[in-house]
C-alpha cells in the first residue's frame, strides 16, 4: 500500500449543472408527478452492533493493474484519469474576475475598520519562497520563546524543504536573476539547518539543554 493517499478532484461545474436541471424539471412538473417522482427513503437498517464502527478506506498503490493483460498503470496515470476536464478560458476569466472583486471588497472592509492601513502589497514570488522558508525553520524549532522547549517537526521540515527543491526544479530558466538568487540561498540555508538538526537528533548521549536562567 502506498504512503501517499489517493485523492479525487471533484468537478463542481458538473454538479452545479445537474442541480440546475433538477430544479428546472421540478418547477415545470405538476404536483402529482413531483410526488410520484420523489423517491421514498430506504428503511433504516438496524445497527449490527452497539458500538461505533471503524471504516478503513483502502488506497490504491502505485502500479495498479490496468485493463491490458499483464499491464500496470502508474499512480500518475490513474490520477490523471480521475481529473475533470480543465476549465475553459472563459470560465477561468470569469472566476478570476469574481475573485478579484471579492478580494477588493475584503480590502475595503479592512480599511474601513482600520483607516490607517494602506493598500496591501501585491504577492510576489519572493513571498512564496519566504513563506516556505519560515515554515521550515519553525518546524525545526526556530522562533521558540525563551525558556520554552522547542517543538521540532523534523518530518514536516523535510517535506517543506523538498517543496522548495521542487519549486527550484520546476521554475528553472523562468526566474529573474534576483528571484533565482533568493530561492537558491533560502534552499541552501534550510538544508543546512536540517543537517544540523538531524545531526543533533542522531548524536548519542546528547545532554538535555540547560534550564533557563531565572
Would you write up a description of this structure?
The chain has 214 residues and is mainly α. The chain has a domain at 125-202. Helix content is 53%, strand content 2%. It is built from 7 helices and 2 strands; from the N terminus they run ααββααααα. It has helices at 12-28, 31-37, 75-81, 89-113, 125-139, 154-170, 177-202; strands at 64-65, 72-73. It has a two-stranded antiparallel sheet with strand order 1-2. A hairpin with a 6-residue loop joins strand 1 (64-65) and strand 2 (72-73).
The number of strands is 2
Structural class: mainly alpha
- The rounded Rg comes to 27 Å
Give the integer mean of the pLDDT values.
Answer: 75
Main beta sheet strand tally, sense and closure: 2 strands, antiparallel
The SSE string, one letter per element, is HHEEHHHHH
Distance between the termini: 52 Å
Brief summary:
This protein is mainly alpha-helical and 214 residues long. The protein has seven helices and two strands.
Q: What structural keywords apply?
A:
214 residues; mainly alpha; two-stranded antiparallel ribbon; 2% strand
